[in-house]
Amino acid sequence: MSLLKLVGVLLDYPQDALWQHGDELLAAADDPGLPQARRAALAGFVRELLASDPLEAQDRWLSLFDRGRSMSLLLFEHIHGESRDRGQAMVDLIEAYRKNGFELDAKELPDYLPLLLEYLSLRPQEEARDWLHHVSHIIGLLAARAGERQSPYALLLELLVEYAEGGLDLGALRKRASEEPRDDTAEVMDRLWEEEAVRFGAEAPGEDCQPATRLPSRAATPAAPRQVQP
After folding, report:
1. What are the boundaries of the region Disordered (predicted)?
2. Is residue 224 assigned to a domain?
3. What does 144-201 look like in DSSP terms, one character per residue?
């Protein structure tokens, strides 16, 4: 299992089957291409995850990645928000997958980071680094936000920035993250739901049916494991 494949698996929602492949995950964490300190930290992350109760691990994942927009693993959400440009960008990404002989095998958005990592793990290293370099500013900010929330997932995101050989100033990003208002608190999420409730008459949405902000998912039931099949 390559490093990108491993990080994608670990960033994804922790399905129960994850605990059945502990030895494989630990073996992949011992990647000789990583500095010794990073290898030890990655192995520690895997051991801690495997030692966790699956329900608790799943709840931690949902609390970090599924509450609010700032930690979304949907990359285009950080670039395009809910604009029409996002739809075209996803069409282009799907075409890039297909051009290289791959087809999505799940009802998952193509810009979902673990899915992209699975695809890139099957591409030449130089190409994978280039892809990640182009989105490293997003991944770096996600890493900074995760670190600000004292989440161990920050390690995985930092590894991706380092893999892309990006010249990001993580210190500056951490400072920015520390100054951002949190969007994952109960108060903020309740306010979003109130603002986005169905309205009629003069308060109804415009003809494009686009709400001002995205509805929080309220920890929806996750989909089946995502895969990119040749």
Report:
1. 200-230
2. yes
3. HHHHHTT-TTHHHHHHHHHHTT----HHHHHHHHHHSPPS-SHHHHHHHHHHTS---G
Give residue for tokens 């030449």.
124
In order along the chain (230 residues), what is the average pLDDT of each group of 10 residues?
95 94 95 94 97 96 89 84 71 88 80 94 94 91 91 96 78 70 60 48 38 33 40
Classify residue 204: in a domain, yes or no.
no
The verdict on residue 146 lying in a domain is yes
Counting every residue, how long is the chain?
230
Domain that holds residue 46: 3-185+214-229
**Are the C-beta atoms of 25 and 50 separated by less than 8 Å?**
yes
Q: State the helix-helix crossing angle for 3-11 and 113-120, rounded to 10 degrees.
A: 160
Domain count, the chain: 1
**pTM for this structure?**
0.76
